[in-house]
Write a structure and sequence with these properties.
It is a single chain. The protein is of the alpha/beta class. Strands 8, 9, 10, 11, 12 and 13 form a six-stranded mixed sheet that branches. It has a five-stranded parallel sheet with strand order 5-4-3-6-7. A two-stranded antiparallel sheet has the order 1-2. Strand 3, helix 1 and strand 4 form a beta-alpha-beta unit. It is globular and about 60 Å long.
């Protein structure tokens, strides 16, 4: 699902979704340090952080005007970064104005939206925010998620970019990295809401580990569009990697598309793999069970007949607060499921 174009056949491949600007004094990222990253502890002086491209971002002081992909903003908010994020991009609000699921608990009315759908990024509005730093996820190596190809060069001239790796590694890793970044940005890692969320997450993980030992259930992580049914690879998606480490038995597709995130199947072949539980992508741009009743193959799937479908946040919020409910939801689905495949 990931490079910003008319969506590539990577993690974002299932979704299809101006003018000259005076750039002023450009901020640029610098250095090529090794290591996980660091930041100054006080509000003044220089600030630096080494991102997951091994790129060291150095500024004169801690950034106060941050623009972030909405998933990154939501994760940082969970870790205590509450005032510095002044702009966001990506699926932030629904048509009715309510927060998109990917916004998590982030107060969407607090930040300026630069674009709510794939390919939208208002560069002039971005420039007007005087950004110190742009933060986004990196699902594919070197690819800054949700930055449109046609305006990426202009965007990257206006402020340094910072990328956190969110693909092909266990979900624990980006969670830890967002915690480190939040601390570098001035958040308190020992704040009660952070420690409580971590405790809840760890308890949920242990419960899932125990559950899958006693409930031998096959799970298929999948997404649905009008024309295709996508079976996701548990060896590529960060959350599925982590759930697999806890012992969840996932369907593994044998013919993944370019990028490796999923295998796309025609609806005639949607029954290629058997599963007891469908872990169905719940993003607003994907089709949900109510949208799929007219698909004959969908209705014939054993898990669908048994009503064993549970929502999958396929772009998880990389924080303990964001991840804990996902672990709990999957655990309940497995606990409640019967063998049907």
């Amino acid at each position: 699902m990931r490079q910003a174009r008319a969506l590539p056949l990577s993690r974002r491949g299932l979704l299809t979704a101006g003018g000259a600007i005076g750039l002023g004094a450009l901020l640029t990222a610098c250095g090529d340090d090794k290591g996980s990253g660091s930041g100054s502890d006080d509000g003044g002086g220089s600030w630096s952080f080494t991102d997951d491209r091994k790129k060291k971002i150095s500024l004169d002081g801690r950034p106060q005007h941050i623009v972030a992909y909405i998933g990154a903003a939501a994760a940082l908010y969970d870790f205590g970064v509450e005032k510095q994020i002044t702009g966001v991009f990506g699926p932030t609000t629904l048509k009715n104005g309510k927060p998109d699921v990917q916004a998590g608990d982030f107060p969407v009315d607090q930040a300026t939206s630069l674009g709510n759908t794939w390919g939208q990024f208002n560069v002039e509005k971005y420039a007007s925010l005087n950004p110190d730093l742009l933060i986004t996820n990196m699902y594919d190596p070197g690819a800054l998620f949700y930055l449109p190809d046609d305006s990426k060069e202009k965007i990257l001239q206006l402020a340094p970019s910072l990328a956190i790796k969110t693909g092909r590694i266990s979900m624990l890793e980006p969670i830890k990295r967002y915690a480190e970044l939040a601390e570098a940005l001035g958040a308190d890692p020992k704040a009660k809401k952070v420690t409580d969320a971590k405790a809840r997450f760890e308890k949920a993980a242990e419960t899932l580990r125990k559950t899958v030992k006693s409930h031998k259930i096959k799970v298929m992580a999948c997404s649905a569009s009008a024309d295709l049914f996508y079976v996701s690879d548990p060896k590529i998606n960060t959350d599925l990697i982590y759930f697999s480490e806890l012992g969840v038995d996932f369907v593994v597709p044998d013919n993944t598309d370019k990028g490796g995130y999923f295998e796309s199947l025609s609806w005639e072949n949607a029954d290629k793999y058997e599963a007891d539980v469908l872990f169905l992508d719940n993003r607003t741009a994907t089709l949900q069970p109510k949208d799929l009743t007219a698909k004959p193959t969908w209705s014939k799937l054993p898990a669908v007949k048994a009503g064993q479908i549970t929502p999958w946040s396929s772009e998880p919020r990389f924080s303990y607060a964001g991840a804990a409910p996902l672990v709990e939801s999957l655990t309940k689905a497995i606990q409640d499921a019967k063998k049907v495949s």
